[in-house]
Amino acid sequence: MGIRLIFTVLATLLVVTESLHAQPVNATPSEVDAFKSSDKDKNRVLSKEEFPAFVDLMAANGQTTAKAIRFFGMYDYAFSFADKNGDGILTPREMRSADNEHRANN
Length: 106
Ligand SMILES: [Ca+2]
Ligand SMILES: [Ca+2]
Known about the structure:
By secondary structure, the protein is mostly helical. It has one domain: Recoverin, domain 1, CATH 1.10.238. It is about 65% helix and about 5% strand. It contains six helices and two strands; from the N terminus they run H-H-E-H-H-H-E-H. The chain has helices spanning about 5-20, 30-40, 50-60, 65-70, 75-80, 90-105, and strands at about 45, 90. It has a two-stranded antiparallel sheet. Helix 3 (about 50-60) packs across helix 4 (about 65-70). It is globular, with a radius of gyration of 13 Å. It starts with a helix and ends with a helix. The mean pLDDT is about 80. One calcium ion binds next to strand 2.
């Protein structure tokens, strides 16, 4: 895998996290639905097994970054990047903190 591709995915993933929780209160219905329906065990966090379903749903909704992740099949890589504390689950807070970091650097 080329280093260039990795950077592309990193950049696009930041856009994913931003679109997810830039405005948590005003999350679009499609995003909320995608999260809820991919959260199979309803524990309000996404496991590594649940994450691909979320990406696929967002891709189906036309989210361009999700489409890119799906196209490259880089679910694991995207998940690992967003899972800041490496505990194997992705919380809304982790998605938001990735977003905050992104905005702090801009
Ligand atoms: Ca879950
Ligand atoms: Ca985590």
